[in-house]
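=== RUN LOG ===
request id: a7f3
mode: sequence -> structure
chains: 1
length: 246
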Amino acid sequence: MTVYAKKDQIYEGKAKKLFSTEDPDKTIIEYKDSFTAFNGEKRAEMSGKGRLNNLISSEIFAYLSGRGVPLHFIEKLDDLRQLAVKVNILPLEVVVRNITTGSICKRLGIPEGLKLPRPLIEFYYKDDALGDPLVTEDHALLFGWAADDEIAAIKQITLRVNLLMQELFEPLGIVLVDFKLEFGKDSSGKLLLADEISPDTCRFWDASTGARLDKDRFRKDLGDVLGAYEEIWDRLSGAAGNKGRP
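=== RESULT ===
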């Protein structure tokens, strides 16, 4: 197996850094200990958060990859880093909702906790300065953020991921409430699921108690944020048959 070393930093976001490698088509993703919410208005540092998100995201990506989902993830390198295909991220965040909570309740005045009869897919334009506004498929098409076939593929992959993630988490006593996905295109133009899948990007509720096991603990000042992330990793790694921590 080829060993890739990180070279120049090519990007730094709110939760991750990206580094070039000797292969122009591969990048190293390094997870940070940073928490942000409300488009960066609320911030904090918590030691160990980057490790947990990397471990959780790597486990979920490996699970999805083994079931045929096209994604940028190649392998987990260590506690903080992943090797991934370098992609150009589409300027769209894709949110799938199974149960109502968060912004949709505030926006539409509907109660929290409604189980939807089918998954709801929403698109948001990636722009922190604008607050990542909700947009329609026509917006994405007419402004060139994604092509017709890409929108169709994104929706198909998103629904597949939703089903697979529910199959993964339900036996662990975890309800998949909603989550955010991002997509990018590699150097050949192939559409790939990218970014991360973690308690930063998903809402997880304990099936028995309803306890929040995700970034809502940080958003809402519920306390024990890292404990919730650790709980997700404990259940996920236990189900995968892992012994101890990598």
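=== NOTES ===
Residues 65 and 71 are 7 Å apart (CA to CA).
The radius of gyration is 17 Å.
=== END ===
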